[in-house]
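Tutorial, part two.
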Amino acid sequence: MAKQSALKSIGHAIGYSAWLIKEIYAAGIDATIAAFKPDTGMRPCVIFYPLRVRTDWDRFWFSTSITATPGTLSLGFRHAASEDGSDLLIVQAAFGDDPLEVIEDLADMEERLRPELKDTPIDASKVLWKPYKHLGPDLDHKHAENLPAAERMD
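Running the prediction step on this input gives:
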């Protein structure tokens, strides 16, 4: 029985890895094509994704898979605000003009990592997100002169 479970785990790991490699290449090609367009389509958003995976190992693989995929970046984990809430993974999506689609893609990735999560669906419309807003150059030039070059927006 243990041998069959180990073989199933290895098979799942190989299948997930193959799917992830395909996704990395597809996202890389999309990002490369977008870079050469006058309107790149980059409309970044930040998503506060409620995690369904529970173990540190699964969280590691989920967040690493997101970061490995061009156009997305795992920004960090946050503990649940309440006892019955979920821990959050903060994700930035460079091509976030449709945040609900990004959330659904994250849910799909999480379910591919742990197929049993399909029994616990996520309602993408209830997941918090916000658009990235460029605040422009610092208008207080006296203050800006004291900032390191990496922190100035001019």
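The domain at 1-133 is CATH 3.30.70 (Alpha-Beta Plaits). In part three we will examine how such features are distributed along the chain.
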